[in-house]
Structure formats: C-alpha cells, structure tokens
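Title: Request for sanity check on TRPM-like domain-containing protein prediction

Description:
We are preparing a figure and want to confirm that the structure record we downloaded matches what your pipeline produces today. Could someone re-run it with the sequence below and paste the raw structure tokens into this thread? We only need the token string, no images.
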Amino acid sequence: MNRVDFVECLLENGVSMKNFLTIATLEQLYNLVSSVKISGELKAHAHYLFQDDDAQHSVRFLVEHTSPTAYLTLPDIGMIIEKLMGNAYKHYYTSRVFKNNYEKFRKKAQLSRLSSFHIRLVSKTSPKRRKSADWCNPMSCEDDAPPDFAYPFNDLILWAVLTRRPEMARCMWLHGEDAMAKSLVAARLYKAIARIAEEDYLEVEVAQKLREYCE
C-alpha cells in the first residue's frame, strides 16, 4: 500500500483533515522532515506518512539563493506561490490575517517549549513536584480554537503540487470543495514550475513530466 492509498484509507475511516492539518504540520510537510509530532488519531501513522526525505520533492529549488537546509515558513511558501501564479496574485499565507495567526502559533510554540523545559527541570530536581508543574503548564489543556485551515484539502493540494507528488495532488483534488478552482490553480503552478525547471535548471525531462500533470 503506497502513501496515497494509506491517506485514502484514513479518509474513508472518518479521519478529519481539519483536525489533522495544523500550521505546524503543514510547515513540517514543506520542509520534508522525517518525523513529526502530531497529536490525535494520526499520531501513530505520522512517520509512515512523512518519512519521504527525497530531494526531488524539495520546494527549495523554487527559491533563489536559498540553502538546501534552509527552513521555509508558510509565509515563504505563500511568496513562492505568488511568484509562480503571477498577475499580482495574492495568497492567503501572505495576508495580514494569516500572518497574525502565524505569529500566535510561533509564540504558542515557544511557550510550549519553555513549559516543557520547565517541567523536565522540575521533575529532575524534585520528582514530587512534577504533578504540580504539569498543572501549572499553560499548554497542558487543549483549547477549543477553530482549525488552522478551513479548507485543508486546498492547502494540501498546493503542497502536493509544489513538492511534485502528482498522485497525492489528485487525491487531494478528489476531496474537499472547489474542485474546478483547485484544478486551475494546480495546472498553472505545474506550468510555472515546468518553465523554471526547463529554463533555469535545464531539466527538460522534469519539465515535460510536469506539463503532463496538467493534462
């Protein structure tokens, strides 16, 4: 069973992509990490889904003067999409609303790391105080915040297209809303990436494959 079949199986069994796809998860997907921390029903399957660390799926070749190990944020991805789409296209990841949410996410992540460090420090110095330290941890209780992405399949198809995973892109296209809009955006992105691969990197075969994905 390949990863697309595995994702299809999860969706058929009622897995909610709104609950699964968070800012942290999507950002890690773009950075091709081999394993991620995911809470909830997909935690046990995370390594299988995201262990692919093949350079051929990297987004970094679309960014000028970027180190192969540079960490790409979602606002960075938004700028890449805008450049590929052209015609003054504005993506949600570069909007003020998303950037505000992104800053909240970063602050929350920093607070979580500090809280975890504090708990480990307290548990080492005084095991009896570990329970009270957990109680004081502001990140220990999940809130009822709305999902990070209202239409997760729209975001995942962008990830699949930019990282050149056509089978996964088709899977994301078949689910969710706005199938026509998703197909038009995907086709435009494929053509733009093909042009970059051919003109800037002389990857003619890669460019031809990307153009075939548009059909």
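Thanks, this matches our download. The CA atoms of residues 37 and 88 lie 36 Å apart.
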